[in-house]
Amino acid sequence: MALEILAMLIVLFVVLILSIRLIQQYETAVVFRLGKLHQTLQPGLNFIVPIIDRSVTIDMRILTIDIPRQQAITKDNVPVNINGVVYFKVEDASKAILNVQDYVYAVSQYAQTALRDVVGGMTLDEVLAERQKIGDMIETIVEKQAKGWGVEVDSIKMQDIELPEDLKRIMSRQASAEREKRANIIKSEGDKLAARNLSDAAKIMAETQGAMQLRTLQTIDGLGPTPSNTVILVPVELFEGMKNLANIFKKK
Fold first, then answer.
1. Total domains in the fold of the chain
2. Considering the entire predicted model, what is its pTM?
3. Element (H, E) at 20
4. What percentage of the chain carries pLDDT values higher than 70?
5. Which residues lie closer than 8 Å to 53 by C-beta, 6 or more apart?
């Protein structure tokens, strides 16, 4: 009699253990009864019927998967290798189980296909400059399909864009030439402005009495009192007198 009671207690204990389902706060469990969808278990302590019921637990947190490096041909026929990362989460656990065999693998494969399609519709310059736009376009494509799988795409980000080595060298030379062009333009603009300022200064000195003498004195003062400097002062009036004499002789 005692052995029978002990056996019953053991059976009840095993049944109790098999019927308990502890669901974490970030999880949801889908219960199938005799192969049919029965209910969805919420976080906490839950019970199911052993043997008859089967539960599948789904992580409801944001998941991160890589888009493996893909080779795509741009609109202007340039091959590029590009990879990215997808952030998504399960919104409807029952759809994620019933509508697709492996929702993680499905999202990954669909993102890879969408990446090649999007890059194929853009030029190389657009691909290099519009990473955010590429991610948004891929997100829109994947999101439309993933809704039927009970999955919500949070964001898709592009990571590395790798170009052929010969194209890298060409772009490097092009960038160097562009920088040299800008430097030459800036220098020429500076020379033009300096020449204009010098011309204005010369006009002011010519029209202002004594301005040339003051400028000469400033230049002499800037030389400094060093023994190696020998300064010979010639009155400006002497040059003006010589100029006037030359004009007189010309008229004769």
1. 2
2. 0.63
3. strand 20-23
4. 74
5. 31, 32, 33, 38
The larger pLDDT score, comparing residue 166 to residue 91, is at 91
Q: Is the pLDDT higher at 107 or at 235?
A: 107
Q: Is 140 left (phi over 0), alpha (psi -120 to 50) or beta?
A: alpha
Joined together, the tokens standing for residue 87 give 């952030």
Among residues 146, 168, 190, the one where a domain terminates is 168
238 lies in some domain = no
Tokens at 29, concatenated = 């469990």
Question: Which distant-in-sequence residues (6+ apart) come within 8 Å of 49 by Cβ?
Answer: 19, 33
Please choose, from the candidates 97, 126, 113, 122, the residue with its C-alpha nearest in 3D space to the C-alpha of residue 156: 113
DSSP 78-112: -EEEEEEEEEEEES-HHHHHHS-S-HHHHHHHHHH
What single string gives the DSSP state of each residue in 111-175?
A: HHHHHHHHHHTS-HHHHHH-HHHHHHHHHHHHHHHHGGGTEEEEEEEEEEEE--HHHHHHHHHHH
Is residue 235's pLDDT more than 90?
A: no
Q: pLDDT by residue (tens digit) across 26-52?
A: 899 999 988 888 888 888 888 888 888
